[in-house]
Amino acid sequence: MSEPADRVAPRLLGATIMHGSVGVRLTEVEAYLGIDDPASHAARGPTPRSSVMFGPPGHMYVYLSYGIHRCVNVVCSPDGTASAVLLRAGQIVCGVDEVRSRRGAVPARRLASGPGNLGSALGADLTDWGAALTVCAMGSPIEPATEGLVNDPPHPDGHDRLGTDQSTPDGVTHHDCPPRWRLIPASEPVRYRTGPRVGISRNADAPLRFWIDGDPTVSGRR
């Protein structure tokens, strides 16, 4: 995790991000590279909002976009530098009833499609700013979704790390007990594509968006 965002981002594809009982398999992410990236919130150095990006990796950067959307990012660069991966889209793999209570009667493939929708599906809040992210062992059990396909029809109804440390050679600390935010790595690499990021005006042509090729939950240009 302690690497620049453009290296971490493609490795997050196919991984599952857990917040409480809700799990989202990530299908689209964007990398933001700190002071060397004019589009990054960290481009002008630490501010009250972006300071978490300059801290140690493995923490959450949650911010409010357009006054309503809670966007979820994973801080990944070494302490003292700044970069983060914006989580743009994914497939709900557990906690679908809880997600429906937040997102309503939209097609399953759209429940967590787009950074604002993904943040809403996960129940992210500004109080999650700076929360620790725990990386779980691959193959950790998760509750299966009650809706199996991403193209299901609309539903009719409309910071602390916990547990025992298990240090690993990659420098990430693993834990036994479930904390607030968890990341379950993908069991195998996925086929992905790269292209320009979406909805920005600065450094817009940089190929720092990564998405799983052909996945229907992807939100940006395909």
UniProtKB/TrEMBL annotation:
The protein's matches in InterPro entries, at most eight in alphabetical order, are given as:
Formyl_transferase-like_C_sf, MPG, MPG_sf
Keyword DNA damage recorded? yes
Q: What is its EC number?
A: 3.2.2.-
Signal peptide positions are none
Q: Name one GO molecular function term.
A: DNA binding
Bias-annotated ranges (Basic and acidic residues): 154-163
> Which region ranges are annotated with the description Disordered?
144-180
Entry keyword annotation includes Mitochondrion: no
Under the heading NCBIfam families, the entry gives: 3mg, PRK00802.1-3
User: What family does this chain come from, according to its entry?
Assistant: Belongs to the DNA glycosylase MPG family.
Q: Read off the HAMAP family from this record.
A: 3MGH
Indicate what this protein is called per its UniProt record.
Answer: Putative 3-methyladenine DNA glycosylase
Q: Which organism is it from?
A: Cutibacterium granulosum DSM 20700
